[in-house]
Structures are given as C-alpha cells and as structure tokens.
Amino acid sequence: MAVCIAVIAKENYPLYIRSTPTENELKFHYMVHTSLDVVDEKISAMGKALVDQRELYLGLLYPTEDYKVYGYVTNSKVKFVMVVDSSNTALRDNEIRSMFRKLHNSYTDVMCNPFYNPGDRIQSRWALLPVSASSPGGPYFLCPIQSRWALLPVSVSSPGGPYFLCPIQSRWALLLCPIQSRAFDNMVTSMMIQVC
Amino acid sequence: MADEALFLLLHNEMVSGVYKSAEQGEVENGRCITKLENMGFRVGQGLIERFTKDTARFKDELDIMKFICKDFWTTVFKKQIDNLRTNHQGIYVLQDNKFRLLTQMSAGKQYLEHASKYLAFTCGLIRGGLSNLGIKSIVTAEVSSMPACKFQGTMQKGVTDTPNKMFRWILCHRNGRLRRLTKPNIILKT
C-alpha cells in the first residue's frame, strides 16, 4: 500500500505531499527529501546508462527495511515520489507504473486548470486517509472527522485500528469532488487504495 | 476539423478585445502586447505539460527545440516549422513560411504594421513551453512579408536554471583574474 505520495517541483520544493497520518509524517517527509538525491543521480546518469535512457519512470530508488521508494520524473522536471510498504509483496512494477501514469495525468490536469498558478502548492480541503490493505469489501475512501458530511462511522477490523469509511459508490461521497484539486486528491486516494 | 478555425477566430477576437479594453483605459496603452504575451505564456506552460506527458525525456536543448518545431507546432497549428536555425550558443530562429494566424490577413506587405499584435500570443506560447521545460528565454517575432514570419528565441544561461551544476570558476573582481572556487557549492553572482 502506498503510504506516502509526493509531488516535487523542479526547484526541489514540495508541491503536494500526502502520507498516512497514523505514522510519523516527518519520517516520510524526510524520506522523500533524501530520495531527491537519488532522483537527481538517476536523471544525470541518463546519458551513461543504456537502459531507461529516456524513460520517465525511474523505478525503485532505494529500499529500506520497512519501505520501498519509487520515483518518476516528467519532462518538465517535476518529480513524483511514492513510498510503498515493503510488506506488500504482491505489488508489481507494472502497478507502480500505472499509478505513476495516473498521477501524471492528474498533475497535467492541475497544470491546465486556469485557477492554478504554476509553482504554487496544490491545495485540497480534504485530508484524505488511506485505507489499510486488508479492509474487507474492496475499495473505500475515507474522509476526515472534521468533514461536513455525516459519515457512516463503520469501524473495520484492519491493522492500524478503526477508520471512518464512506463507500465510494455512495451518492454524497461523489458529491465531495466537484473541483479540480479534489479530483487530484481523489485520484491519489484511489491510487493508494488500488494498491491493496 | 473545425478546431483550427475556432482557435484562429478566438485569437483574433482576443487581440481586438485586449486593444478595445486599452482604448477604454482598463489596460495601459503599450501594455497590450505584454498582456497577450503573458496569456500565451500561461497557455504554453499547460500545453507543454500535456504534450510531453507521453514523450521520452529530452536529451538536450536542441532536442527540445526540435520537439517544439515538429510535435508542438503540428499539434497547435497543424503544420511543422519550415526552418530551424541556431548558432549553437543559445539563439534559435524558427521560420514559418505560412503562419496560420496570418494567412487570413494578407499575402504581402499589407497590414504589416499590425502583424506584431497577432504574433505576441504565439511568442508567449513558445516562451511558456520552454520555461516549463526548464529553459528561460526571450522570444521575439519578426515579419518581413506575410504570411511568413520568424520567431527568434534567445536562451538565457542563468545560475538559477541549473542549480545542480557546480560553478568552479568565478571572476574575481579585485584583480580581474579567474580564480578557482574552493567550496564548489557556493554560487556567486559577479
């Protein structure tokens, strides 16, 4: 399961960074920050390496004992970094690639949004929480407790404790995403879920 | 098929709209071309993001210019740039012998004085595209005989463009000689 997703601008400051709040967020911020060096190394080593010479997907940047970090760079030098739980061994390279593709598509949509100034942080009103891998019943997405919508407080016996869930098929859950930045958020969340 | 005409008509209206608002005092006189160019800049940034989504990474500046001349121009104006010249030192000249936005206007020297208004948006488009790909530039256009026009891009090699490069040499202003930096991470502007 993707525990942290970050979008880094070409000047190496974060445009969007989202991680599971159950863990120490600072740790993920630090991991993303250190992974930038590896990304830069891979980009500059492009000329010497014959494989992945002109690809946007950078692959596994570095593994730690609990997590694996994957990277992707766009032609406009915007980097996407994803931190994934190591315990999820069913995750394959193709799935990570497709997640990055979706992230890239969403980022392109944000870029084309006339209300978005390039270089600003990508704002979103919802601090969405990712769902743990073993929640029964398939994909859900979560809303924070501060949400205006009456949530169904369903607790799920999943590792990491109970979460508040609202099913993705519900009508009012869909009403939550009318504008661009929420669409970006939803895309990121669905990506975190799809990995399960 | 109609999207070509749509953009052409919209662009013409945009230019006349900006100039009308200048007459009414909303925009300072003389800033119309800047306004059009800035519009083109923002559009160029978004467009280039969309078009480079599926392409491979660019190797160098020339690669980027070729992309602009071929794929970018084809997608926006349905034709390629006819001639690309460079002096390999940061100056590129893109020549379009039949620029789409000018073909409807005249086939020679008529209305030449108004041509610059209609080229400002495209200059901004190129500048925005290059800026999103990491190249700071100044783009100007010149027309000698419609509908052919030339876009000249001057790439700026600033220290802010490549923060990862280590500048090992600085010009010491005291004795005017080149001195080697001892700490390569410090970048000084002379």
TrEMBL record, chain B:
GO cellular component, one term: TRAPP complex
Keywords: Endoplasmic reticulum, Golgi apparatus, Neurogenesis
GO biological process: one example: endoplasmic reticulum to Golgi vesicle-mediated transport
InterPro entries cross-referenced by the UniProt entry: NO_sig/Golgi_transp_ligand-bd, TRAPP_component, TRAPPC6/Trs33
Gene3D superfamilies in UniProt: Trafficking protein particle complex subunit 3
Pfam families assigned to the protein according to its UniProt record, in alphabetical order: TRAPP
Origin superkingdom: Eukaryota
Entry's localization field: Endoplasmic reticulum; Golgi apparatus, cis-Golgi network
Family from the record: Belongs to the TRAPP small subunits family. BET3 subfamily.
Known function: Component of a transport protein particle (TRAPP) complex that may function in specific stages of inter-organelle traffic. Specifically involved in the early development of neural circuitry, likely by controlling the frequency and amplitude of intracellular calcium transients implicated in the regulation of neuron differentiation and survival.
Oligomer status and interactors: Homodimer. Part of a TRAPP complex. Heterodimer with TRAPPC3. The heterodimer TRAPPC6B-TRAPPC3 interacts with TRAPPC1 likely providing a core for TRAPP complex formation.
Protein known as: Trafficking protein particle complex subunit 6B
Taxonomic lineage: Eukaryota, Metazoa, Chordata, Craniata, Vertebrata
Gene name as annotated: TRAPPC6B
